[in-house]
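Case study.
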Amino acid sequence: MPLDPVVWFFLLGLAARLLRSDLKIPGALYEALAIYLLLAIGLRGGVELAHEPLLSLAPQAAAALAIGVAIPLAAYPVLRYLGRLSAPDAGAIAAHYGSVSVVTFAVATAHATTRGIPFEATMPLMVALLEVPGILVGVMLGRAGDSSGGRVRWGMLTRETLVGKSVVLLVGGVAIGWLAAPTIAPLQPFFVDMFKGVLCLFLLEMGLVVGARLGDLRRAGPFLIAFGVVMPLAAAVLGAFAGRLAGFSVGGTALLATLAASASYIAAPAATRIALPKANPALSLGASLGVTFPFNIAIGIPLYFELARRIHV
Amino acid sequence: MKTHPKKLLVIITEAALEAQLAADAERLGAHGYTVSDVRGAGARGARRGDWDADRTIRMEVICDEAVATAIAGHLHETYFADYAIALYVTDCAVLRPEKF
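After joint prediction, the assembly is written out as follows.
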């Protein structure tokens, strides 16, 4: 199967960075693209949600929350005892994998749309639900193992992750889409038709960012590189079974598996940098951004769709 | 024109710390501060500043010597061990001393 164009854009960014090109996406544009993607994902879900009964939301939300808590709980002992990492490092990495990557999700929705695979309108809400608990559990685990970094301001941490830009824009987008569904048509060209083009630009930037972090992989070592591949696969299986149990369709199950497999590189780094100061960001970002992100978009996503299809047979 | 001596405290560090640093500075007696986005490299590697986790800020605080010492001491104790941070204090002169 030919690679999706978004993957080529990612590879272009990666190549540009490795060739030391002066190509740079300005910080303000990066922010703007991220805001656009989050709003577009939310809006689209909200519009479809307006045409669907909300009955199925409770089991779906329960599945998402369970995944968000289970992944860091499973990852932490592996990192701590098999990988012999310090408690703050293991906690920080567990938090990254417990939380989600919205861009990985966006690439997976583009994959589904291109192939005409339908999925639940509630998926953007699952992204928002999965963003937070993993971070809190990972930080708790890291702090339980090593409390030397001063006290954690739990209230502040919870508030900041709950009102972080991705949760606000996703939930806000769903709300606007749901409320304004009958009059949303004029927004279609901007928020729907342009989505994939914007995603390509964003992936170009991700290629540049990942290229700059490849040096971290040397510091991360073979264990974390292996973890960055095995963890998403294991988490995807967990996500796919949870999705099946919660009654998701094939598309929804694949997207939930993708969310479970993805690792955060926006919300989790910011939160763990403050709450787990002893953790080395080069390790968590080296694994989540340097290994798991490219693995998921190039290899993982098609696998998770195949997994979802088989699990539903 | 009469000028009044003050201290200029400059902190260059990870953007993740901005909210905490601002709260610390105000709590320890600073009347204000200025933050700018910067980029560079140091003991903890290069920080290109092109996305969230890689951003660096420079915070400038004009204040009395006692306040500068208090803030510098607090930052030394709290952040120096774990964060990419550079801090220096220089003399400066202002026209309206009551502002700082």
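Observations recorded in class. The mean pLDDT of chain B is 93. Chain B touches chain A through 19 residues (CB under 8 Å). We will return to this complex in the next lecture.
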